[in-house]
Write a structure and sequence with these properties.
4 helices; mainly alpha; extended; 2 strands; two-stranded antiparallel sheet
């Protein structure tokens, strides 16, 4: 899911930069769905790439051939995709004329100190859960052992 710069560059240049304008023209997509700066937003790249790959896998499967439902399946997925892209575009705050640099929440930005604090807290919580589970498992296994029998009497 995470593309490095070389992979992003290759995919953008060879696949998405030629394909997205064609998609926008073919379906008369508005800037509320696909803004011109979509390629500057990692989440939008993932969405566009997912739709592109779905189309390629469904309609151009050279080995098996496309399923009979491939064209309508693509239209259905395109409808879902448009809703997701509209939400991403709205969240980004970009318009046809303005690009807003993506911002990451402080706790999720590895460059910010809040991330280290959050990470420690989350790891401590996970370790507490694991310890509680281990204690619960130990208690369950000791209570489910059958009683031992010595000299004909249960102990």
């Amino acid at each position: 899911m995470k593309l490095d710069d070389a992979e992003r560059s290759e995919i953008l240049l060879s696949k998405l930069i030629p394909w997205v304008p064609e998609l926008v023209r073919s379906y008369m997509l508005k800037p509320q769905i696909v803004v011109p700066c979509w390629y500057l937003h990692e989440e939008m790249i993932h969405e566009v790439l997912a739709l592109y790959q779905y189309r390629e896998q469904q309609q151009f499967n050279l080995e098996l051939g496309p399923p009979a439902s491939a064209p309508i399946d693509f239209q259905y997925q395109l409808g879902l995709w448009k809703h997701r892209m509209t939400e991403l575009t709205a969240n980004a705050g970009c318009t046809q004329a303005d690009h807003h640099r993506p911002t990451v929440q402080a706790w999720a930005d590895v460059e910010r100190p809040e991330s280290a604090t959050w990470s420690v807290t989350a790891e401590e919580f996970a370790m507490e859960l694991a310890a509680d589970f281990a204690m619960s498992e130990a208690a369950d296994s000791s209570s489910s052992e059958p009683p031992t029998v010595r000299n004909g009497a249960e102990q």
